[in-house]
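User: I'm curious what two different proteins look like when written out as structure tokens. Can you demonstrate?

Assistant: Sure. I'll show them one after the other, since each token string lines up with its own sequence. Here's the first protein:
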Amino acid sequence: MQVTKKRKVRSDKKKNIKPTILLDAKTAIYRLADITETPVKDVGEYLCKEALNNKGILEELAKHLKRDIAFENTLYRGNHKNPSIIRRTEAGDCERITIRVTTDVNDILEDLAYCLGCAKARVTASLIESAISEFSIVDDYVKGFLEEGLDKNKMKELKKLMNYVNDNESDNDYSWASMLSVIVDEVRSNTTTVLNGPNEIIEEYLINNWRDN
């Protein structure tokens, strides 16, 4: 008798989810992926995880619960009379994206889907749309990306630049996300040099446009 070995499944293997999200949200996610040169699937995963850690987002989601669920030491009560999460296709123009999440996050999403009485993809879409609309989540993502990639001196100069612009040249305060977006567009439109990622783009911008006085 021939014995076939079962393929070992990695403990950190990720699962694909393909939520259909509002077009405005998709555009914002693709822009965030573009300025940080990060795959959309990874940006989507980050947003999903941050939404699951955001009490305000969870409390809004809890308004649609059909069954009780305990999450992070908090019990959210469900009621079969609660309104269901609206289908994204009924909410406006939308398109599908693909994200990849860890097994642990996937399990949480499946539990939420059961308690909300809807598909996992719809729960995921709701979480991602809420997260991309949350200023602090997006800004923390960009700031963390910059701090991880830039050396201390360049990060220090970038902070000085943002403070200067916000104090002197703008009616509305720049966030980390909006600042990076402006820098990326500025450098791309003014150079034919191939730059290796956002960090070289920032270095190019600081050299040519900013001097610490």
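Here's a second, unrelated protein for contrast:
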Amino acid sequence: MSSSPQPEPPALAAATAMFVEVLVVGIGAITASVLLLIALIGPDTTAKLAPVTGSSAAAGVGLATAYALGILIDRAADTALGILIDRAADTALTPHRRQLRTRFFPSNTAYAQARLRLADSPVLAARADYARSRMRICRGWTLNTLALTFTADLAMLRYSFEHRPLILGATSALGMATAFGFYCTWRALTMTGYRKLAEQTTLPAAGQPVPAQPQPGSVAS
């Protein structure tokens, strides 16, 4: 008796990884939103609303909102990085993702064909998906960290505590440094992903002869 078809583990793993990836980005976005709300309503109202946040309904709404914001932040991060890098006057900034791609692929068609060839190897395709997932998380958290730094500073300005200027300065410096670290990691992962894709898809297939290289002094027919 033939067994009923089972869902493909790679597809299920990819869907799970994508859900977790979006949620990880969204949690940072919703945290920044909460900090902004605290800054707007002040400490007294925040203390009154605090018990509500511990309810199951609030947790469910927060989870759903985090997932939705994760999708939004991922798209916004992609666009924002493009605007930031393409429009910047400082030549020390790294070119945008599409410009990075042209170092290894001369056209979008060549890149698409390489992706199709990579799909023929499930192991390599899974590794590439994992690398792209890490890249998108770093890209999203580049914006998340900037937003968290800004909203945390705003929230702290509404409260009175000792050494507030020092803590504000330290928070801002740490946030900017962390955002820059996420950006550098995004760039490195992007470059490595394109380089590996080019290397893995330009090798001759197994069983095919390697084209002969022209000898010095030979004339092509």
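A detail about the second structure: The mean pLDDT is 75.
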